[in-house]
Amino acid sequence: QVQLVESGGGSVQPGSSLRLSCAASGFTLEQHAVGWFRRAPGKEREGVACIASSSASFFYAGSVKGRFTVLRDSAKNAVYLQMNNLKPEDAADYYCAAEYLGGCPRRGISETMFETWGLGTQVTVSS
């Protein structure tokens, strides 16, 4: 029915790039804010990036700002997370989540803001 599916994860070397996809089915993702979260071993889940439903505002965690970019492709009913200059600290399971008519607070995003979640995709960054 209503689903989000992440893809594009993999194993890369530091300094490499990776593009994660968040594809929606059963609903129109364009009507939703989409947040990206990650969970690394031994760490709490962290809100990494967000694009508002209007696409007029964004959020990026300080640790990824300047390296990660969120893009929306309404024709494909998908949102992407472009990750450049990856660091070992970026290794984690990445999740996308959607919030109907949601926004992206500049101070940060919370899991409680989002109603629909994908199952995640794994990113490994190592030499």
What does this structure look like?
- With 127 residues, the protein is an all-beta fold.
- Helices cover 0% and strands 48% of the residues.
- The chain has no helices and 11 strands.
- Strands 2, 4, 5, 6, 9, 10 and 11 form a 7-stranded mixed beta sheet that branches. Strands 1-3-8-7 form a 4-stranded antiparallel beta sheet, with no helix packed on it.
- The protein starts with a strand and ends with a strand.
Helix and strand sequence = EEEEEEEEEEE
Structural Rg: 13 Å
β content, as a range? over 45%
How far the N terminus sits from the C terminus, by CA atoms, comes to: 40 Å
Secondary structure: number of strands: 11
Main sheet, how many strands, which sense, barrel? Answer: 7 strands, mixed
Number of helices: 0
Mean pLDDT equals 97
Inertia-based shape: globular
Structural class: mainly beta
Low-confidence regions: none
Q: Secondary-structure map with pairings?
A:
Elements (H helix, E strand, L loop, with lengths): L2 E5 L2 E3 L5 E8 L6 E8 L6 E6 L6 E3 L7 E6 L4 E6 L8 E9 L15 E2 L3 E5 L2
Parallel strand pairs: 2-11
Antiparallel strand pairs: 1-3, 3-8, 4-5, 4-9, 5-6, 7-8, 9-10, 9-11
Descriptive tags:
127 residues; mainly beta; seven-stranded mixed beta sheet; four-stranded antiparallel beta sheet
